[in-house]
Amino acid sequence: SYCKGEYVICMGDDDRLKSCCLEQYAELIAKYPEKKVFHALTELIDEDGHIIKQLSLHDETESDLSMIRNHWNGDVQYIGDFCFHIEQLRQDGGFFRQPLAWGADDITTARAASYSGVANTQKVCFQYRENHQTISRGGNSKIKLEAKLLEKKWFADFLQIYNMKSEDDKVLYRKIQKGFESHYHNQ
To answer: Measuring CA to CA, which residue among 118, 105, 125, 121 is closest to residue 43?
Structure first.
């Protein structure tokens, strides 16, 4: 609600945007003005800022189902490596609310990508800091389980009413549906 610009990035205070990040996003926004969400190629860094690894490179554009399937098949993503069209985010009620924000990033990005897919940078633009003091690594098992069940329900509802746009969507949809229970069982 405090944002004044057209786009917003919600990142942790210990993560970093690389010097090329805003330029890369601006190029994607100009090239794909219909998109409501943009994703930065990301590096993981340790607590001292040393690079641990680069995450998976994706096609410059991909559908919402492709993004979901890639993530569910092990591609890591964080809320901070996404740039959102603020007006669409507002129309959707903002960032999705979940206990401890657990799973809120996946729901928020899937919802934003459902309009016209996602555009991905082809250069590393974002650095996510791995540390041992995050909510992800802490306790709170009961709250995390509650949030995971709410996330599972959201995705089940999302897939139930999903409108197929192409033959590729049908293939991806079947693969996601086939792996749905195992994805949540393995969490």
So the answer is: 125
CA distances 141 to 78, 153, 158, Å, are 20, 18, 25
Q: Give phi and psi for 29, each to the nearest 5.
A: -60, -45
How far lies 14's CA from each of 26, 41, 101, 133, 172, in Å?
23, 17, 17, 12, 35
Contact 52, 46 (CB under 8 A): yes
Tokens 């959201």 locate to 154
Specify the pairing of strand 118-129 against strand 51-54: unpaired
DSSP string, 68-126: HHHHHTT----GGGEEEEHHHHHHTTSSPP-GGGTTHHHHHHHHHHHHH-EEEEEEEEE
> Are the beta carbons of 123 and 24 closer than 8 angstroms?
yes
Q: Return the half-sphere exposure (C-beta side, CA atoms, 13 A cut-off) of residue 146.
A: 9
- Cβ atoms of residues 64 and 58 within 8 Å: no
Q: pTM of the entire structure? A: 0.92
Tens of pLDDT, residue by residue over 50-64, are: 999 999 999 999 999
Residue 20, pLDDT > 70, answer yes
* Cβ pair 11, 95 in contact under 8 A: no
Residue 136 reports pLDDT greater than 60: no
